[in-house]
């Protein structure tokens, strides 16, 4: 379903390379970290390399065999919805979930090949712990009369199977800002674009595998508690939380604004 579709995206949206472009990568290893492995990771440091061909040659892509190979990428895009009623049912294995995340992180583009996305995957009990933490942080902040509704909403997220935390590592961005000051003001925005692509592809990809999912933004109020517990480098910036699980209900009705107000074609 998503394998062939994402391969098309990868082929049509290559990394931005120019002769002499400096590339940066984390010396601490892969950008995806599970809740158990992240505790053993050291804080990322940057190393420079002029040979970007090694980075490209090691990239690969694969998805679970449960995906229907006949489903196109645009069909996957159309099928992506916000599912808020979730349960603990998982249509694919934990290994398949991690493989989908790995493939996404390895293959999605980033500006100047900075590869700034850092993902933390929380499954089962770790996922539930995360949403308990969110409640602990919000309770002193939310008015007492409003907290029961907030608690109910958080319970809906906790009822799911897992949560993916999307961080951005600002270190490569800062290095490039110094190297290319003319573009410096735009680079933080480009970093956000990188994160958004990862969020969308995993959202659509998990739903293509049979999960329901929704995207949340409880940052920055939860950042410090989360980073301290899962030993995430404090300089990383939390950008979103993708909640997923079995579908316990249907997605709401989706409405569309007129395309003529949103798409403009010239030269046809």
UniProtKB/TrEMBL annotation:
GO terms for molecular function: oxidoreductase activity. It is found in: Cytoplasm; Nucleus. Signal peptide: none annotated. It comes from the Eukaryota. Keywords: Cytoplasm, Nucleus, Oxidoreductase. Residues 77-245 form the Nitroreductase domain. Pfam families: Nitroreductase (PF00881). GO terms for biological process: cellular response to oxidative stress. GO terms for cellular component: cytoplasm; nucleus. InterPro entries: Frm2/Hbn1, Nitroreductase, Nitroreductase-like. The keyword Nucleus applies. PANTHER family: FATTY ACID REPRESSION MUTANT PROTEIN 2-RELATED. Belongs to the nitroreductase family. This is Nitroreductase. It comes from Lepidopterella palustris CBS 459.81.
